[in-house]
Amino acid sequence: MSQTPLKIGVIIGSVRPGRFADKVSRWFVSEVERRDDMETHVIDLSERDLVRELKLTLEHSAAPDDAPTLAQRIGGLDGFVVVTPEYNHGYPAALKLAIDYVYREWRAKPVGFVSYGGMAGGQRAVEQLRQVFAELHAVTLRDTVSFHMAWEQFDDEGRPHDQDGTAKAAAVLLDQLAWWGLTLREGRAARPYEG
After folding, report:
1. Which residue numbers delimit the NADPH-dependent FMN reductase-like domain (predicted)?
2. Which uninterrupted H or E stretch holds 146?
3. Which of 34, 35, 112, 121 could form a disulfide with 148 if both were Cys (CB 3.0 to 4.6 A apart)?
4. Which class does domain 6-59+67-189 fall in?
């Protein structure tokens, strides 16, 4: 008996022009798409006017184009992988705004991380994000994928130089995401999470 594929949101946390996130996220999405137990849903924060969307929500107004809100998109997913850079020892402000814009929809769902940056490879951003998601009752995964000195790790076509190593790291993360995603989806269905 086959399971319905998990709906996995890949959240691109950088909104800077010329961002390196495009290379990292394209590579990671291609790794997710190799699997038959997951369905990829990319949420690119640079494509959303989060400040305007938040203001409309606070005013109880509808978005004029009736596009699904970020909260609706998050609510319909089974798990997430956040692709984040490290800016000044932290994660991007747009990512914080997006996380805080949503509340109950994060609960009892797994969150993994793909980070990139300089010497620390984005790990300081990930450690801060773990604290934020814990407060939202999300389950963060232990293993991450991290690119230290990221701009040196990819070729001109956007492929990692160490394709075997990065594929193995992604597989570990995605296997954990699959286990937690399925377990928590079944748990939410059997007994809604009220934490």
Report:
1. 7-151
2. strand 145-148
3. 121
4. alpha beta
